[in-house]
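Journal club side-thread
Mid-discussion, someone asked how the predicted structure for our own chain would compare to the paper's figures. Pasting it here so we can look after the session.
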Amino acid sequence: MPIRRFPFLTALSVGLMVGAGYPFVDVALACRVPTSEACVWGKAYFPLTLSVSVVVLGGVVTGLLYAVLVWRRRRQSRDGAV
């Protein structure tokens, strides 16, 4: 069973990093001018954006990366069995 867990754990860790990292990058880009309206609203909604981004964006990235990793593993096993 550890062989099956590796792609999921890899996809989950990448998904969490992307989901948690996006709001930080977004606020950093918006706050190049600290008094701009985008910076003020970005900081105000940061906790909400972080939580939604981890669930939605992280979930999408996790699902897509897991599908790619499993597909590649199955393709390699089929090619090697020939």
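Post-session note: The two ends are 24 Å apart (CA to CA).
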